[in-house]
């Protein structure tokens, strides 16, 4: 039922899926009997049976009986009390979530055999070699591949994080249930565990009561890394390496990272006033803190495992140097010229840094089983989480907390033993001053007497363990690095020798690679290729910050900032200049060596915030930040304006620091979103590259690489899905051509959402249908909202998704898809697009009744109460579709099962071309052109989810009689679209080429249809009693349930 189904596996074992659904349904049935009683439970069962009967009648073509049963169903729902309605909404919503969990579980079961599953590295590499690609060409393409997956905080994840974790537990239990050797007692215990989880879910409030802050959203992204990606990345890279070695004879280089990760969480300020410069700084530091904390845990495991004595002379020398340094520290910071008793130093000090005092958590679990470990809940140990340890005798959560400005930090995360285990401390002695004293004390003294009591006597100590000594030193540096970040978060003064902490990933990699090379040289390669190689690959992939943070701001905000500057300098108003004058001014200032903005300038708060953002960017630099994305970009001056503000701020900050700013300038990425801007994208890039300063800047500072982002959401809302898809295709062709003219490489950044209406759909299909030459080994793409959890929430799904990205980009690079064979194909696409766009805009923007119809027929106005995102639903307070964000636009229509934005206009476009006698040509284009085929297939997938009777029910009950005719016309357009899509594809029924999807849709309807009808009834009541909080809660529960049933939101 989800838009990503064929990314994981084409088919599932439907019988096994049904068995699991039946098991979960029966257990939920028992929980309901215990929780709400037999009477309400039986009433819910009658509703389900009635809905299922109606579905059977409609599927069988007995429309009159189906209509009668649905009217009876609506009548029963309208007679329910509010308490009964809320219980039904919760029960059916929970079961739809359980069905989604079971579906994902069974898709993963089918994907476990990596050699047999489609789109795996093994099968794709073999396919390419069979098609004539040489082993060397294949090897180079994989090693040079650069894919960056950017996680965003777009408000489409409807489940609370608490419920997401409980759902993960259910998924693990289903996996356990499939073990063939499960005995009777084990199965009984499993059922008890399932009942406990389902009871816990039932008794948990499914609604968010407060809006998340941008920092909360960033924590959610970091949790995805910790609970899934951290485990998945090494396993994924092993698959790539093993497949490469099998087919080319060479493994993947240890520090090669075909896939990395970025984030917009805490950096996307486009239309979100809650994302400030301070938030960006805090989120960046928090991400670095989390990375260091995860590395500390891994080093603990390695220190336990690497008990090997044999090493190279180079590693032995480094180990003895560390021991000598520790001996001097123990003796009161003596001079390095003092004589050192090597025997005494070896025996007295190696244990301090080398040997863990206790086994690290999970030391009994082999690394290969980490992705399947179900023994623990995900660890949530980072500053500012909601987790509160029990550390009082009465068992209540301790309130002891330190408060970083902008972050709430539990002290249990700031005070650790050498093993990295969290230890809570009282408030006394906490705070910036005590933390600074602690840092100073740790650097100046040896171990305390208490610590020495924990150590074994000299006679019990083993001989020198060189790897443990090296890793002990690595851990000490990591701990100091983590403490330093905590002080930075607290804005405390820091005086620390750069040698005492890690600043870059290359510094951390150096001792790890030294250990790896030593093990390989000494015949212990099998050990080196275990947990150590996994850690090295994690460092190469995640760096020192897990995910580099992009900054995003709307182009108009930069123009306002330059307005304030030019006005202050008596130069006029920048925004009133023509494009030529803007470019002349910007180019002149970029070539200059003096700052443009005077330190004494006074500007409005909005402008000050923009300038402060550039200041934070200059301080953090490329090690923490990724790209600066300009939304609503339309001219070359939009890019140069950001380059100038960036350059000017860096000059000012360098002057204050007395040294150059850290690392290089950020990449500046124009985001073309509207149809007009997409059509001009190639010209804008061409004009930019024609400017000598800019072209030289790209070559010198960005390795001759231009990045361009294309937006799927706003283009779809602007012109409809078909026109947006075609304009995006042509825009990419034009951008690639413009860069090629100037010898500049290009990386296209795809701003895709989760739903089809916002450019979503199967990853492999989307990449394989891009224009030839647009994916040349590099790709950036967003993963948003509920898609982040769906694709990367479990290690197993994450591994498959990463593999799919790698193989899809590899195929698009080495065997790019075919362009249109004939120019006539383009002419037909233009004609379809023209008619489609006209129909769409005439309905959405030109019909004065549409906006009111939209507000009446959907729960759009009520979506803001979901508290699923930190940003407002509108960019500006003005009404109309234009200022409404794309997510609530899609979300609202998905709730009513009309899914209008994904298909409106398509039917008219196809009809116009078919009636002109081009039906056979369209069928040929569908079979031979991947882009057109994927576009039509995705529209067909959406049509399979749409439901005309349900959409009509919303209109009949909620829409004013004077506007119902508009609904009739729209439903006719939907039928027209279905008819002509089937004509073009040659299918007899929708989703005929995806029977698994159709069967899954049908299995959900007995629960989904009553939820839609109940939502209509609650909306009707709520609009007559707007202040009824219980009605509002009931409505939000139906929204959650329908989103679970549709498997996406916006």
From TrEMBL:
Q: In its UniProt record, which GO terms are filed under biological process?
A: carbon fixation; tricarboxylic acid cycle
Q: Where is this region: Disordered?
A: 385-434
Q: Name one GO cellular component term.
A: cytosol
Magnesium as a keyword? yes
- Give the EC class as a word: lyase
Q: What is its EC number?
A: 4.1.1.31
* Gene3D superfamilies linked to this entry: Phosphoenolpyruvate/pyruvate domain
Pfam families in the record: PEPcase
Which catalysed reactions does the entry list for this protein? oxaloacetate + phosphate = phosphoenolpyruvate + hydrogencarbonate
Gene Ontology MF annotations: phosphoenolpyruvate carboxylase activity
Q: Which UniProt keywords apply?
A: Carbon dioxide fixation, Cytoplasm, Lyase, Magnesium, Phosphoprotein
Low complexity composition-biased segments: 407-418
Where do the catalytic residues lie?
A: 154, 717
> Could you say which cofactors this protein requires?
Mg(2+)
Identify the InterPro entries for this entry.
PEP_COase (IPR021135), PEP_COase_bac/pln-type (IPR022805), PEP_COase_Lys_AS (IPR018129), PEPCASE_His_AS (IPR033129), Pyrv/PenolPyrv_kinase-like_dom (IPR015813)
- Spell out the SUPFAM superfamilies in the cross-references: Phosphoenolpyruvate/pyruvate domain
State where the protein is found. Cytoplasm
Q: How does it assemble?
A: Homotetramer.
The family assignment reads:
Belongs to the PEPCase type 1 family.
User: Sorted alphabetically, which PANTHER family does this protein's record hold?
Assistant: PHOSPHOENOLPYRUVATE CARBOXYLASE
Q: What is this protein called?
A: phosphoenolpyruvate carboxylase
UniProt lineage: Eukaryota, Viridiplantae, Streptophyta, Embryophyta, Tracheophyta
